[in-house]
Amino acid sequence: MDQKIKIKIAGREYELKSKSPESEELIRKSAAEVNKKISAYQDKFPQRNILDLLSFVALNETMDRLGTRKELEKALSEASSLKADLEGYLENIARDSR
């Protein structure tokens, strides 16, 4: 059952639905992280309006996500290559032991 929760981002309150306690925790932590990053940008760029700050946060988060995705794809490719190498090695051992 969905549970209604309230969060604040950039001083504005939003009512959302959470499907589970884990989802609620993720939503709350995400909102806190966004607010933390907005605050950091406010310190760096006090003359900027909230829309600019939110745009900076969105850009930064998207860059991080895309970078992480690229790293994951590289790690999966390396794992696949290692698996193929290991399978080849094991086949050679099995063939040589006959």
Give your account of this protein's structure.
With 98 residues, this protein is of the alpha+beta class. It has two helices and two strands, in the order ββαα. A hairpin with a 2-residue loop joins strand 1 and strand 2. Helix 1 packs across helix 2. It starts with a strand and ends with a helix.
In brief:
The chain has 98 residues and is α+β, with helices and mostly antiparallel strands.
Structural class: alpha+beta
Q: What is the radius of gyration? A: 23 Å
Beta fraction of the residues? Answer: 5-15%
Mean pLDDT: 95
Strand segment count: 2
Task: Fill in the keyword field for this structure.
single chain; 98 residues; two-stranded antiparallel ribbon; 14% strand
Topology:
Blueprint: E1 3-9, E2 12-18, H1 21-44, H2 50-96
Antiparallel strand pairs: 1-2
Helix pairs in contact: 1-2
